[in-house]
Specification:
single chain; mainly alpha; 434 Repressor (Amino-terminal Domain); 64% helix
Length: 103
């Protein structure tokens, strides 16, 4: 039997906050614990984990110091998430904007 290899192209995506939440769970940390380590307000960390707060190099650097990996990993994770989120929002807008066909 011949197998045809298809590239894996999921139609779903997760925010960097999901990765952060997974790491916090492993560390048994709360959002408040992370906020203290990052020296950011808890409200910002809550938004970060919810995928609502875009971030830049400074946050990526602190995430790498506190949670591991590299600043580049965290920046790529954020950039990919924002691109996917934007594409999804545009797709949803195009569905809403389509005129209804009457018969």
């Amino acid at each position: 039997m011949t197998r045809i290899q298809q590239p894996f192209t999921p139609d779903w995506f997760t925010s960097p906050g999901d990765t952060i939440a997974d790491i916090l769970e492993e560390l048994k940390w709360t959002n408040k614990d992370l906020a203290a380590q990052l020296e950011y307000p808890v409200e910002f960390v809550d938004q970060l984990i919810a995928g609502e707060a875009p971030y830049g190099q400074d946050v990526a650097h602190k995430l790498s110091q506190v949670l591991g990996s590299t600043p580049e990993f965290w920046m790529r994770r954020e950039a990919r998430y924002r691109v996917k989120l934007s594409a999804l929002e545009q797709k949803q807008e195009s569905v809403v904007d389509k005129p209804k066909v009457s018969s």
